[in-house]
Design a protein that fits this description.
This is 1-acyl-sn-glycerol-3-phosphate acyltransferase. It comes from Ornithinicoccus hortensis. The protein has six helices and eight strands. The chain is an alpha/beta fold and 225 residues long. Helix 5 (133-141) crosses helix 6.
Length: 225
Amino acid sequence: MLYRLLHVVARPTGLALWRPDVVGAERVPLDGPVILASNHLSFADSVVIPLTAPRQVSFLAKADYFTGSGPKGWLSRTWFTAIGSIPVDRDNTRAAQESLDLALEHLRGGGAFGIYPEGTRSRDGRLYKGRTGVAWLALTAGCPVVPVALSGTDKIQPVGAKFPRITKFRVEFGTPIDFTGRFDGVPAGRARREATDEIMAAIHAMSGQELAGEYNQRRPDHPSV
């Protein structure tokens, strides 16, 4: 119900305000499990992708966003529930595997799941090496991966800005990548690495970002999951 309201009211309002360039939305399968794997430039990315995708896309979100009190807590809880976010306790010692397990459950239910293989947003605009959780999900769930390239979203709400800004951004949805049967007999670790690198190469081909050639590290003050 909340998502329908968001889709009918907030989506057209947001698109009218920001007027983003959206390319390839028709490439996203409209039903069945699918992973949308994107580069990550801003906290706003988890709003931008659901805003421009042709179907509901769920992301992981800190459990704290669902438990706050007062008007701010209500607004946070309502928003993240409306966009279909999946709460996860990041302080749990098993947080990484728990996150993947929750995402896998969502995919097995036929949902679309959004993930940032870099792990955390890029603060210098470069594209960092992908972590293999995205490939584990794709290979375990047996679902396609749609690479997504964002640009300009870092200008929507720069670090330190209290409110979002009206500025142009671009979202490109790439051709779905299907790994079905491609890694039969290949050692699991190697399969995950090769699949992840292929996904990141597809993102890079669309985004044109400089390659960092290393993993990005999450800072303690990073607000996203």
